[in-house]
Write a structure and sequence with these properties.
- This protein has helices at residues 3-15, 62-74, 110-124, 135-149, 157-174, 215-225, 230-241, 246-273, 280-295, 300-306; strands at 25-29, 36-42, 45-51, 81-85, 90-94, 100-101, 178-181, 190-195, 198-204, 211-214.
- The chain is of the alpha+beta class.
- The model has no long low-confidence stretch (mean pLDDT 91).
Length: 307
């Protein structure tokens, strides 16, 4: 561990009431694209400790994310936040010792898909959060930040942006369906406890992008992240909404394209900010390619009209 990281880690530990660096054992956790994550053992208990990445405040409203995590805990679908210190860039959360992070392979199983959809339904039914930041605000923010940073984008980016604008206009004309949203469906954010091969419990973690947002976006970005086919997507839409009407399906497919524009635009600018050993540019170009596939779908204009 280099001296700079050790210094930051020691300062974070000392910021927790009752902790000193001599009393706490830490080890790094692999994963995370913006922050450094650690397991911290103190007083016989293991905690999850997150140290915020440099520049992450440009993308994350920390007060909002903690409020959302605490609301999810009250709903019984997330671990408890034990300590939060925005001044030092630190949060400590209950570590789910009997759970493990889900993987992409897990989401080839229908029971994992169903459990995640049910988690979303519970979170969306909660009280509105204090902050609303819909998907279009997110994308527009990323586009502006990318312009300022000189982000490297695909050669057909202006065409991609034009299709995104058409999607935005169609959604806003139809009216946004705003609910509390998690907005970050990486498989590792779904912590699962198994009994044998059966799911005994699933919990949702990492609320950094949480805000009141378009309901269809939440479902769409999850379906995109877990790579389900069209038939399975329709079945999961029915599980969540109780039915599959053309306008519902259209909202999901259009929102999927917008989701890929969001994460593509986030990634190519993150390349300019982050020192992590991760190929943000490659990730972003891949996300843009997925958006392009939906923009080129012969049903695209029909979906926009159906919204």
């Amino acid at each position: 561990m280099n001296k700079q990281i050790q210094k930051q880690l020691d300062a974070a530990i000392e910021a927790v009431p009752g902790w000193t660096k001599e009393q706490v054992e830490v080890r790094p956790l692999v994963g995370g694209l913006m922050n450094s994550n650690w397991l911290a053992r103190h007083g016989g208990k293991t905690h999850f400790m997150k140290i915020y990445g440099i520049g992450s405040e440009a993308f994350v409203n920390r007060d909002q994310s903690i409020a959302a995590a605490r609301q999810a805990y009250e709903l019984g679908i997330s671990p408890e936040v034990l300590h939060y210190d925005p001044a030092t860039g630190l949060e400590v959360v209950e570590f789910l010792t009997e759970h493990r992070a889900s993987t992409n392979a897990d989401f080839s199983r229908r029971d994992f898909l169903d459990a995640a959809i049910d988690l979303y339904a519970k979170f969306h039914a909660g009280a509105p959060l204090e902050t609303t930041k819909d998907i279009f605000e997110m994308v527009d923010e990323h586009l502006e930040q990318g312009d300022q940073l000189g982000a490297i984008r695909p050669t057909d980016f202006q065409w991609l942006k034009k299709q995104y604008q058409k999607a935005k206009e169609a959604f806003l004309a139809s009216g946004l369906d705003l609910v509390p949203c998690h907005s970050d469906p990486m498989p590792g954010n779904f912590m699962v406890r198994l009994e044998g091969d059966r799911i005994a419990d699933m919990q949702l973690v990492d609320f950094e992008f949480a805000a009141n947002n378009e309901r269809a976006y939440e479902i769409a970005v999850f379906l995109a992240e877990v790579f389900v086919d069209e038939q399975t997507s329709l079945e999961l839409i029915e599980r969540y909404y109780g039915e599959v009407r053309p306008e519902i399906a259209a909202r999901i497919w259009v929102a999927r394209a917008v989701a890929d524009m969001k994460w593509g635009s986030w990634a190519v600018q993150q390349r300019k900010l982050s020192e992590w050993d991760f190929d943000y540019q490659k990730y972003g170009i891949w996300k843009y390619a997925r958006a392009r596939m939906l923009f080129n779908d012969p049903r695209w204009d029909g979906w926009l009209r159906t919204l």
